[in-house]
Amino acid sequence: MQTRRQTLKQSAAAAALVAGAGLLPQHALAFNKAAFEAKSLHDALKDLGVSGDPVASADVTLTAPDIAENGAVVPFALSTKLPDVKALVLLVEKNPNALAAVFQVTPEVEPNFATRSKMGETSDVYAVAVTKDGKALFAKKEVKVTLGGCGG
Amino acid sequence: MGDPMRIRAQAKDGNVLVRILMSHEMESGQRKDSSGNKIPAWWIQEVTAKLNDKPVFSCEWGPAISKNPFLQFTIKGGKAGDKVSVSWKDSKGDTRTDEATVS
């Protein structure tokens, strides 16, 4: 128990340090509940501070399979060549909640992330680069799902 | 809580490629149990990482991320022998931190 308390304290201290250093945008520190509960792509992006409509861009890349055999585990990689990006965001349009992940683009990491997500059904999947001035640029791909990953 | 994360940190071309496999149910909140009741959502919400005690990475996840989540990112700079520590916090407030040495 002591160890866990120490770990928690350290995590809180680290978060405070990062906030103080201005490394992460203010709104990104608290878990963005609204964005993750938004149903639609558009609402999720709005909750993430995006103004205006997202624009397709060849400088944002989404790597995803054409067909996901298992909708419970679909691999995705997101990257961008654009400067001044504060976050790379993964959205699955037809999922019950469109927003799957938000990766903070800090100066310390390459703007290149990979993870695996559930998909409920065949859907367009978006990698969106959110710039520091609130614009959204995206790459999208339709991923076909033969066995849905959300339940039942 | 749960099993330790499996973290592989490899120095490559002046950067550190980090790959992690976490152990977590990542319950989406969409599944129903045998009585037809929805199993409550329970998932890792935040993941952060440090290189030698300096915060370098942060992301937020929704319940759509797959069970036993996989994560890959590249830290700029870094070399063999450096320490990478990864922490997650889930929707119940549980946390976990694991470390690896860059090889």
Which properties best describe this structure?
heterodimer, A: 152 residues, alpha+beta, Immunoglobulin-like, 2 domains, 6-stranded mixed sheet, 3-stranded antiparallel sheet, 9 strands, 38% strand, B: 103 residues, mainly beta, 4-stranded antiparallel sheet, 50% strand
Instruction: State the separation between the terminal residues of chain B, measured CA to CA.
Output: 26 Å
What does the overall shape of chain B look like?
A: elongated
Helix content of chain B: under 10%
Rg from Cα of chain B:
15 Å
Identify the CATH architecture of the largest domain in chain A.
Sandwich
Overall tally of structural domains of chain A: 2
Low-confidence stretches of chain B: none
Biggest interface reads: A-B, 48 and 37 residues
Taking the sheet with the most strands of chain B, its summary is: 4 strands, antiparallel
Got a strand count of chain A?
Answer: 9
Mean pLDDT score of chain A: 86
CATH topology of chain B: Immunoglobulin-like
Overview in brief:
The complex is a heterodimer of chains A (152) and B (103). Chain A is α+β, with helices and mostly antiparallel strands and 152 residues long.
Give structural notes.
The complex is a heterodimer of chains A (152) and B (103). With 152 residues, chain A is of the alpha+beta class. Chain A folds into 2 domains: 1-30; 33-145, SoxY domain (Immunoglobulin-like), CATH 2.60.40. Helix content of chain A is 23%, strand content 38%. Chain A is globular. By secondary structure, chain B is mainly beta. Chain B has one domain: Immunoglobulin-like. Helices cover 0% and strands 50% of the residues of chain B. In chain B, the strands form 2 sheets. Chain B has a 4-stranded antiparallel sheet with strand order 4-3-6-7, with no helix packed on it. A 3-stranded antiparallel sheet of chain B has the order 1-2-5, with no helix packed on it. In chain B, a hairpin with a 2-residue loop joins strand 3 (44-51) and strand 4. The mean pLDDT of chain B is 96. The interface between A and B is large, with 48 and 37 residues. Strand 7 (109-117) of chain A pairs antiparallel with strand 5 (70-75) of chain B, so a sheet runs across the interface.
